[in-house]
């Protein structure tokens, strides 16, 4: 380990907002007009909007007349949810960055269908990510944009980002999305036409195609720098599904654009695919039922093509690929989402007389009347959730929270809330740091990590209250950059302690004593309902009770629930 290794924590780049709005006759009109994004307000206007929001005067189905005493446009509709109360100094906003619509060749729903369902199932933000392809590149991005804009108007209290699912040259798929602004359509269209692996015929695992992927990430970074869009992010989707996201590619993405390439799906979508026949598709969770191909990274083991408790092998293996990145000090975050295309049990079908190749979309779906049990997806928010610690209910705040790693994920509503704080022991006046952040301490300082978990407390969408059985604390040493960019294990990460819970209501708190910190470390959390556990792939001494490998054809997602957090870093000062 390098003495005094400096943790390369990412810093947010300046956001600029070139789009303008007509704010009406007065400052307060702009504050209550939810067509005006938070980022477009002055600091004073934003402060006033946040005051109204905290008072319940926004996002509650009220009219502007209720605030101004004069007629005005309708404010945001609301689900009446109570989960936007600040916790730990942040609004923890649930979302999903991987959702498809009728503008994808293998999906069928309208944008507003996905948005309304996401809102009904408790999501605060979402990203529409239709597949990049030759057809989509020609007509898809600009055709879907009016639908996204309309959905933003129809459902005001769910933030709707526009993005696309990038066919990463030489690799798998990835979410690319931008903050709303004048350049969102133009930038995404140019990106897709110039850098999509399918459009450019660059899917093979070659050095030239890997370089094209890097060029695409640089394009996004430059688009932000030159103020074409306020912000942009990239997250790798289902990274181990086909084994074609090699370790050196993941490292290269992060190194090339650390403000853009920030993480990966820790758990894929398509979770309903594991429901056994005849009641479900009878496949693997996430459709992880593959094996090595010519383009796969040859070093990956056979187990990597399966999920573990519904999570990707890269994430689920303690001491595995994700930990090898964290052990280098690379901020590389995990998420979870639906990858919703066609929903399990839904009784609708694609609209008749659809010609996707000619129109770049399917006709609006129709009621078929027969529930389809072969569909492998859930509605956004129904099962998988990515919780982001945001400073406000705003597009830029969500993106900044993701970039900073203030993220935890869960399946099936296993828990309702998570607050994690690393702090110097005995320093009652210091609240410490939260997920994704770095606690800097004097050498020899004793450090502790406080954990507060709000349990499920109410039924999930499968109509049972999940019970949290156990919480695992995972700790690893930060040993610095590796010479072999294809390494995917690290020897100094393991489960260091576990807490038994066995409850599903109320709140539980734990304090993990890290002890004296004389070298950089990180701490992350994992929790389970305890229904399916097994020793980890690197042995029981590393992970005695980890997620069991899912069995294709017999992997009911509701019977095996987990949550994961991103890490907190602890670094001694030199």
UniProtKB/TrEMBL annotation:
Residues 1-28, 267-287 are annotated as: Disordered. Pfam families: PHP (PF02811). Residues 95-170 form the Polymerase/histidinol phosphatase N-terminal domain. Residues 7-18 have a biased composition (Basic residues). GO terms for molecular function: 5'-3' DNA exonuclease activity; 5'-3' RNA exonuclease activity. This is Histidinol-phosphatase.
């Amino acid at each position: 380990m390098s003495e005094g290794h400096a943790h390369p924590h990412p810093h947010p780049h300046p956001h600029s907002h070139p789009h303008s709005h007509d704010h009406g006759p007065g400052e307060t009109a702009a504050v209550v007009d939810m067509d005006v994004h938070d980022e477009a307000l002055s600091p004073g206007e934003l402060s006033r909007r946040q005051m109204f929001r905290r008072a319940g005067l926004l996002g509650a189905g009220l009219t502007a007349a209720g605030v101004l005493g004069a007629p005005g446009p309708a404010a945001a509709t609301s689900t009446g949810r109570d989960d936007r109360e600040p916790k730990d100094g942040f609004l923890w906003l649930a979302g999903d960055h991987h959702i498809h619509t009728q503008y994808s060749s293998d999906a069928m729903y309208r944008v507003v269908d996905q948005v309304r369902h996401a809102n009904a199932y408790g999501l605060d933000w979402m990203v529409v990510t239709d597949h990049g392809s030759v057809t989509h590149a020609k007509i898809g991005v600009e055709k879907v944009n009016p639908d996204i804009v309309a959905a933003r108007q129809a459902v005001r209290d769910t933030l709707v980002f526009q993005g696309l699912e990038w066919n990463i040259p030489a690799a798998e798929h990835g979410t690319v999305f931008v903050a709303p602004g004048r350049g969102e359509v133009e930038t995404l269209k140019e990106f897709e036409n110039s850098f999509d692996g399918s459009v450019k015929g660059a899917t093979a695992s070659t050095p030239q195609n890997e370089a094209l992927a890097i060029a695409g990430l640089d394009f996004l970074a430059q688009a932000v720098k030159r103020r074409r869009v306020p912000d942009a992010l990239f997250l790798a989707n289902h990274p181990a599904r086909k084994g074609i996201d090699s370790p050196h590619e993941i490292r290269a993405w992060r190194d090339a654009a650390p403000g853009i390439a920030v993480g990966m799906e820790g758990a894929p979508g398509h979770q309903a695919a594991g429901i056994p026949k005849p009641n479900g598709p009878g496949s693997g969770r996430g459709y992880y039922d593959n094996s090595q191909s010519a383009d796969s990274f040859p070093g990956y083991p056979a187990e990597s093509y399966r999920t573990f408790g519904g999570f990707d092998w890269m994430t689920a293996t303690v001491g595995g690929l994700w930990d090898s990145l964290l052990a280098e000090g690379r901020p590389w975050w995990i998420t979870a989402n639906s990858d919703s295309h066609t929903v399990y049990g839904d009784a609708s079908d694609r609209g008749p007389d659809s010609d996707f190749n000619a129109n770049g979309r399917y006709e609006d779906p129709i009621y078929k009347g027969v529930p389809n049990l072969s569909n492998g997806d859930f509605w956004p928010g129904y099962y998988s959730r990515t919780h982001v610690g945001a400073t406000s209910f705003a597009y830029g705040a969500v993106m900044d929270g993701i970039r900073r790693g203030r993220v935890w994920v869960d399946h099936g509503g296993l828990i309702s809330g998570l607050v994690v704080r690393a702090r110097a022991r005995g320093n009652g006046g210091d609240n410490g740091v939260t997920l994704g952040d770095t606690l800097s301490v004097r050498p020899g300082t004793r450090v502790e990590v406080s954990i507060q978990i709000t349990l499920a407390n109410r039924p999930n969408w499968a109509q049972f209250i999940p019970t949290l059985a156990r919480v695992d604390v995972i700790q690893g040493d930060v040993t610095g950059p590796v010479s072999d960019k294809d390494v995917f294990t690290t020897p100094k990460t393991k489960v260091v302690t576990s807490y038994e819970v066995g409850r599903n209501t109320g709140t539980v708190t734990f304090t993990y004593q890290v002890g004296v910190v004389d070298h950089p470390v990180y701490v992350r959390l994992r929790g389970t309902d305890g229904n399916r556990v097994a020793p980890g792939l690197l042995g029981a001494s590393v992970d005695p009770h980890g997620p069991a490998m899912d069995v294709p054809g017999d992997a009911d997602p509701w019977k095996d629930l987990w949550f994961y957090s991103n890490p907190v870093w602890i670094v001694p000062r030199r």
